[in-house]
């Protein structure tokens, strides 16, 4: 059965379907913005801030020893012991709760709680208390990094609001708390989740030079030559490269993406918690992709192209169309009688729909997710060109990449067009925030010992 008003449907979807030339223009604009982000005099003008992580190398397989990792980014907190013996990795971990009273108490209470958890972990795993353990810390809150083991909290997010921590060095606060308990650990690296994804994949494949998050939000990091990083304030020793945290989600904040912004994007931005910010991220990430699709669906309903022009109250509710619905609808098959699409429409209280409506829903979801994947590919293409290696592996983590049935293939397809002379592969990262943190510590320890 054919949809009603196919020409009108085509017109409504058209603004989201960009040409190859347009994606090439986006790539060029991103590259220019990243160059500004790395410079001293243009840095304040850049949307992508290109923060220095002070991580200088990926694992080379010679790392050995025991390393602790801490992973703090929500109400659960993990302590991990990671044993490295060349290419072999064994991991043990324990999850500890962070009570709400501590999440909104003082910084001293939070870090004392973390120290108590480390102490319990060392006791439970019967670790030698006379040997100092190097530690990597994944701290998933906005920070200004001032060294590999020095990071100042910019602001709390995710329900945390501990007093006395903003603008303070979190490593110093951690060390003060572990000293009270007389625990022999030393934090030698603080990282974010993109660096974790890169390092975790690099341990299995040392051609990994790019780390990418495609989940609720999106961000990327990559290995850059220090000579191109005008803001570099570290030492001049080898290796002469450093991982840059692009913070690319903010690209477009200065209106560089206005030429592709649709009415759907504008509406999503208006109802978001941070209007005018994270523009590129809002076009790609899992937090907003479902809402972009809902905006399109409502326009189609109001034009009489869907559901006989009738939308349920739930469908008219902002953020009610979840991004997971897109994955479910796109993994549906016509010969299965659109079972998953029908389940989604039932959940949204849509009462009247036909096979033709299911086809239109599939088309809407496909157009929205394809644009998101192609936009991500434009960004990755910039980083591939910057890395300047013959073969590059891209470590990817995040629920959008993991669970969307076509995201991997769509990115690969567009990346092959935008970087035709590059050999690359996308690799799913496993436990970047745990294993990745320990690997950063291990590599830092190896470089420290060799220097």
Automatic annotation (TrEMBL):
Pfam families: Hexokinase_1, Hexokinase_2. It comes from Bugula neritina (Brown bryozoan). Belongs to the hexokinase family. CDD domains: ASKHA_NBD_HK_meta (cd24019). GO terms for molecular function: ATP binding; D-glucose binding; fructokinase activity; glucokinase activity. GO terms for cellular component: cytosol; mitochondrion. InterPro entries: ATPase_NBD (IPR043129), Hexokinase (IPR001312), Hexokinase_C (IPR022673), Hexokinase_N (IPR022672). One of its GO terms (biological process) is glucose metabolic process. It catalyses: D-glucose + ATP = D-glucose 6-phosphate + ADP + H(+); D-fructose + ATP = D-fructose 6-phosphate + ADP + H(+); D-mannose + ATP = D-mannose 6-phosphate + ADP + H(+); a D-hexose + ATP = a D-hexose 6-phosphate + ADP + H(+). SUPFAM superfamilies: Actin-like ATPase domain. Coiled coil: none annotated. This is Phosphotransferase. Residues 209-443 form the Hexokinase C-terminal domain. Residues 9-202 form the Hexokinase N-terminal domain. The keyword Kinase applies. Its EC number is 2.7.1.-. Catalyzes the phosphorylation of various hexoses to hexose 6-phosphate. Gene3D superfamilies: 3.30.420.40, 3.40.367.20. Pathway: Carbohydrate degradation; glycolysis; D-glyceraldehyde 3-phosphate and glycerone phosphate from D-glucose: step 1/4; Carbohydrate metabolism; hexose metabolism. Keywords: ATP-binding, Glycolysis, Kinase, Nucleotide-binding, Transferase. The keyword Cytoplasm does not apply. It is an enzyme of class 2 (transferase).
């Amino acid at each position: 059965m054919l949809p009603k008003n196919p020409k009108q449907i085509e017109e409504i979807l058209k603004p989201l379907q960009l040409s190859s030339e347009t994606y090439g223009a986006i790539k060029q604009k991103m590259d220019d913005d990243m160059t500004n982000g790395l410079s001293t005099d243009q840095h304040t003008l850049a949307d992508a801030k290109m923060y220095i992580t002070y991580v200088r190398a990926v694992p080379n397989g010679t790392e050995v020893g025991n390393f602790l990792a801490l992973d703090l980014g929500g109400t659960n907190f993990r302590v991990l012991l990671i044993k490295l013996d060349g290419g072999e990795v064994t991991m043990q971990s324990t999850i500890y709760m962070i009570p709400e009273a501590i999440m909104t108490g003082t910084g001293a209470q939070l870090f004392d709680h973390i120290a108590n958890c480390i102490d319990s972990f060392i006791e439970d795993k019967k670790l030698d208390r006379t040997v100092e353990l190097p530690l990597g810390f994944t701290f998933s809150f906005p920070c200004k990094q001032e060294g590999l083991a020095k990071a100042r909290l910019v602001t709390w997010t995710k329900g945390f609001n501990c007093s006395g921590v903003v603008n303070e060095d979190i490593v110093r606060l951690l060390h003060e708390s572990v000293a009270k308990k007389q625990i022999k650990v030393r934090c030698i690296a603080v990282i974010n989740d993109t660096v974790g994804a890169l390092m975790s994949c690099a341990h299995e494949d040392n051609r990994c030079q790019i780390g990418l998050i495609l989940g609720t939000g999106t961000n990327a990091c990559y290995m850059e030559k220090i000579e191109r990083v005008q803001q570099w304030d570290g030492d001049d020793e080898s290796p002469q490269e450093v991982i840059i945290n692009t913070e690319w989600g903010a690209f477009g904040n200065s209106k560089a993406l206005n030429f592709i912004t649709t009415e759907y994007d504008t509406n999503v931005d208006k109802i978001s918690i941070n209007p005018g910010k994270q523009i590129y991220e809002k076009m790609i990430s899992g937090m907003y992709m479902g809402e972009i699709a809902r905006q399109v669906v409502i326009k189609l309903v109001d034009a009489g192209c869907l559901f006989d022009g009738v939308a349920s109250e739930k469908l008219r509710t902002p953020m009610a169309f979840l991004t997971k619905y897109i994955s479910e609808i796109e993994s549906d098959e016509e010969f299965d009688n659109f079972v998953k699409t029908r389940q989604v429409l039932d959940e949204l209280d849509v009462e009247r729909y036909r096979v033709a409506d299911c086809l239109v829903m599939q088309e809407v979801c496909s157009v929205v997710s394809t644009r998101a994947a192609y936009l991500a590919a434009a960004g990755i293409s910039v980083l591939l060109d910057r890395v300047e290696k013959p073969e590059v592996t891209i470590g990817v983590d995040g629920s959008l990449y993991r669970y969307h049935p076509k995201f991997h293939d769509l990115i690969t397809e567009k990346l092959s067009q935008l970087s035709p002379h590059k050999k690359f592969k996308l690799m799913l990262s496993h436990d970047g925030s745990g294993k990745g943190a320990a690997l950063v510590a291990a590599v830092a320890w190896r470089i420290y010992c060799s220097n």
